[in-house]
Amino acid sequence: MDRTLSVPNWSFPESRAEVERALDTLVLENRFTIAVVFPAVGALMLLASAEALLGPLNFNPYLVLFGTIVMRLPLVAGVAPLTDRRAAIALGLLTCYAFGIELLGVTTGWPYGSFEYGVELGPMLFGKVPLGLPVFFFPLVLNSYLLVSLLLGDRAASTPLRLGATIGTVLAMDLVLDPGAVALGFWQYDLAGVAVTYYEVPWTNYAGWVLSATVAVLAFDLGFDRAGLRRRLEETPFMLDDLVSFVILWGVVNAYFGQWVPVAIAAALGAGLLYTDRFDFDVRSAVRPLGR
C-alpha cells in the first residue's frame, strides 16, 4: 500500500454535502497513513524531542498541533454530517467549558490538581493553556462515547449505563495519556503534600476528569441525535481510527519510559477496537459512498 498521504482529485466543493464526501474520501484513501503512520512517527518525534535530539524542532508546537489535527480527521469526518445547529451550539458551549475549566485548573489547581504546562502545544491562550485545547479534549471523550456505543449496543440507550461506561473509558484513556504526557514534560503537577500518585499524576486529576467527562457526555447527548450517531458509526469504518492513533502513540511513549500499567491499559483499549472490528486495514474495499 502507498503510505504517503494522498489527496483525492476534486474540484472546489460547492455544497456542504460535497465537502463531507471529499473529507470521507480523503480519510478512506489514507486510513493507514493517518491512523498508523502519523502516530508512530509522532511518537518517535516526541521521544526524540524529550531526549533533545531534534534541535530547533524539539517539541515544535506547530508540528505537534498539525500532527494532532491530522490524526483527528477520521473523527471530524465521521461527525461532520451530524453536526447541525443544535450540535454546533452544544460544541460551542463545551468549548467554553473546556477553556474555562483548564484556565481554572492552571490558576487554582481545581479540579485536576495544581499543574502547569512545560511544553507549548501550539499557540497559548493568555500564555497558560493551548488555543487548540478542544482538539485535544473533545476526542478523548467522544472516542470513549463512540466505543461505548458499539460495545454496549442497544444497552447504550440507558443513560446511567452509557454515562458510567463512558466516564470509565475516559478515565482509562487518561490513565494512559497523563503518565505519558508527564514523562514527556508536556505538563507537570505540583505534588507537594500528595502522598499517593500514579506515575507522578495525583488522584485529583482523575476526580476532575469524572466531572469533565460527565459534562461532555451530557453535551453530546443534548447536541447530537444518538440514533443518527449510531447509524453513522456503524456505516463508517474509519470513525474510531483516531482511537487507533491514540493507542499507538501513547502506547509507544509509555513503553519507552517503562510505564507498563499505561501500556497494558492502552492494549485493553486496542482489544476493544479489535472486538468491535473497527480497524481491519482493508481500506481498499472501504472506499465507497457513506450513508449517501
UniProtKB/TrEMBL annotation:
Organism domain of life: Archaea
Signal peptide: none
Annotated transmembrane regions: 32-50, 62-82, 89-111, 131-152, 164-186, 206-224
One Pfam family linked to the record: Caroten_synth
Keyword annotations of the record: Membrane, Transmembrane, Transmembrane helix
Identification of the protein by name: Carotenoid biosynthesis protein
The organism of origin for this protein: Salinirubellus salinus
Species classification: Archaea, Methanobacteriati, Methanobacteriota, Stenosarchaea group, Halobacteria
